[in-house]
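Data deposition worksheet. Section B asks for the primary sequence of the deposited chain exactly as it was used as input, without tags or linkers unless they were present during the calculation. Section C holds the resulting structure in token form. Section D is free text for depositor observations; keep each observation to a single sentence. Incomplete worksheets are returned to the depositor.
Section A, Depositor: J.P.
Section B:
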Amino acid sequence: QPCRKEDVKRFSDKEGAECATSKIKDSNNYRGACAPYRRLHVCDKNMEKIATSTTSDTLLAEVCYAAKEEGASLQGYYEQYRANNTDFKTHICTELARSFADIGDIVRGRDLFYGNTQEKTKRKQLDKKMKDIFKQIHSGLTKKGAKDHYKDENGGNFFKLREDWWTANRHTVWEAITCKAEGAYFRPTCSMNGSGAQAKDKCRCKDEKGTNETDQVPTYFDYVPQYLRWFEEWAED
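Section C:
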């Protein structure tokens, strides 16, 4: 299961801000990036158990499973959190977009949050798992041009391959994380006839013909550095 028992209560401020250098990757002081309440847990535990011999399709299925459960977890506590915090005005689509971006960072090896000692160990294990999986995917590339283009130049991280894998599959992950969502994305980010429009159904955009609500992803949070997203989120929390 993607979610553990401790992941159930989302938006909890019980643990306070997570700013310790031991819990934030590459942090060297306590005044930098701080993980927001939503990010203290994420439903990705199934990804820790993916076989390293997996294919790209299997990886996508597991990432979508994690995204689906993450979306359900957030929505289960979102209204309760808003009811108890009347000054909290952030839309559920925005919260889903933030977790979507965090999942993208995990896939691409960019995630900054380690958590407590136990979580830190599991985060490092997950990061190694992702490296091994993309090494396997790279070994399965049949075209020499592709193999050369995506060859590893970063100590086994395969960053270029991971980046393009995410770009190719992000729309499917967005479908998964918003599968039970209701309402509109508050920013007019859909491209409709050359102008901006809101994603009015399940936080999704229509396609160019206006008939398919899953054609476009209405957010680019996953291309904004994680610590900058967290700064904005803290301003709202």
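Section D:
The first helix runs from residue 56 to 84.
DSSP finds six helices and two strands in the chain.
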